[in-house]
Amino acid sequence: MLRLPTFDLQEPKSLYGALALLDEHGKNAMIVAGGTDLLPNMKHKLFEPEVLVSLARVEELTGITATDDGGFDIGAMTTLADVAASELVQQRAPAVAQACSLIAGPQLRTMGTLGGNILLDTRCQWYNQTYFWREALGFCLKKDGTACHVVEGGQKCVAAASNDSAPALMSVNASLVFERLNERREVPVDSIWLADGIVNKDVKPGEILTRIHVPAQPGEHRGAYGKLRDRGSIDFPLFGCSVRLAVDDANVITDAEVCAVALVARPIRLKNVAEALRGVAIGSPEFEVAVQVVADAAYKQCRPMDNVPGDKDYRREMVPVYVRRTLLAAVNGDGPVHHV
Ligand SMILES: Cc1cc2nc3c(=O)[nH]c(=O)nc-3n(C[C@H](O)[C@H](O)[C@H](O)COP(=O)(O)OP(=O)(O)OC[C@H]3O[C@@H](n4cnc5c(N)ncnc54)[C@H](O)[C@@H]3O)c2cc1C
Ligand code: SF4
């Protein structure tokens, strides 16, 4: 049996209390939200904080509200189950609701939060293992070692961003609000990702992610999320993609976006998607051609590595399949797309 190491649990009831505790304990403290990722990682000795500051009792961080700009706000402690079930999110940003509905399994979605998902640690099949297992292999660059087992001779960790909500939030141009004692910043979600598998997020010490803002989507908005995974019931993504389309009254696409995850350390925004789809009428012969152009572009731009489980060549072949299916699901409003 894997045991949790000893730590001091702090359970503040206000945001200010949580910020003050983080300030007081500095590098010795970590935030715990639902704990569905952090606690297993602590059992594997991947993180060894002396103090855990739980946000579970900070009520002001929970809830979903419509905003005056036609978008909505989600408190960082809102559970994945609540985001997935929200009619507001389903209507205004279907890809976000769909991505959350496919994360892990029902119990984990009831405990796991959107904030914890955004700030999920990167994953790698040589890293998300027990201490004993990692020690037998000589550890690796990300924790306790000096070599990478994915890229021979590599000096940079390429563990994969594996959070399903990340590409969905990128596709709808969400922003994130971070607070720390006497400081607050709101940044586009894209700006926090770093191309470094060891720490792939630009979050300052002592900062708490408090709120996620999704703005009103332009035109008639359509969106969907597609996820390749081994088991339909529960699994991290082997590849995930999120589609956003803006459509006018004549059913012509005016803007388009595809974002993807489970490839490298940061989720990516695919290039040349809007160029291929803009001005194309849905259902026209040009539409079929444009969808294929986007699927081909995805194949060229997405190169899965041996970081997460699943044969990388198989995963690459599935990239255009999932991008194509997810685009069609966004058009038809019948996402999410996933293996069952
Ligand atoms: C079997 C299994 C399957 C899973 N499948 C998936 C999957 O398919 N897709 C997927 O994306 N995830 C998956 N997960 C991972 C996890 O369940 C989810 O990502 C979940 O959303 C994490 O949220 P949490 O609240 O539990 O985060 P926690 O574990 O509490 O925290 C995760 C990280 O975020 C930090 N953090 C949390 N909240 C904040 C905040 N508000 N401000 C600053 N830092 C914060 C913590 O310090 C920690 O570093 C799976 C987990 C398990 C055990
Ligand atoms: S990619 Fe995997 S094996 Fe390589 S350093 Fe990162 S976690 Fe370790």
Question: What does it look like?
Answer:
The chain is of the alpha+beta class and 340 residues long. The protein has three domains: 1-58, Uridine Diphospho-n-acetylenolpyruvylglucosamine Reductase, domain 2 (2-Layer Sandwich); 59-119 and 160-214, Uridine Diphospho-n-acetylenolpyruvylglucosamine Reductase, domain 3; 221-338, CO dehydrogenase flavoprotein, C-terminal domain (Enolase-like, domain 1, 2-Layer Sandwich), CATH 3.30.390.50. The protein contains twelve helices and 13 strands. It has helices at 15-25, 38-43, 80-85, 87-92, 94-101, 106-111, 114-118, 131-136, 165-171, 273-277, 285-301, 312-332; strands spanning 8-10, 29-32, 51-54, 64-66, 72-75, 175-180, 183-188, 208-214, 220-228, 239-247, 253-261, 268-269, 337-338. The chain has a five-stranded antiparallel sheet with strand order 4-5-8-6-7. Strand 4 and strand 5 form a beta hairpin. The radius of gyration is 20 Å and the shape is globular. Residues 30-38, 40, 55, 76, 80, 103-104, 108, 111-113, 115-117, 119-121, 162-164, 208-209, 234-237 line the site of flavin-adenine dinucleotide.
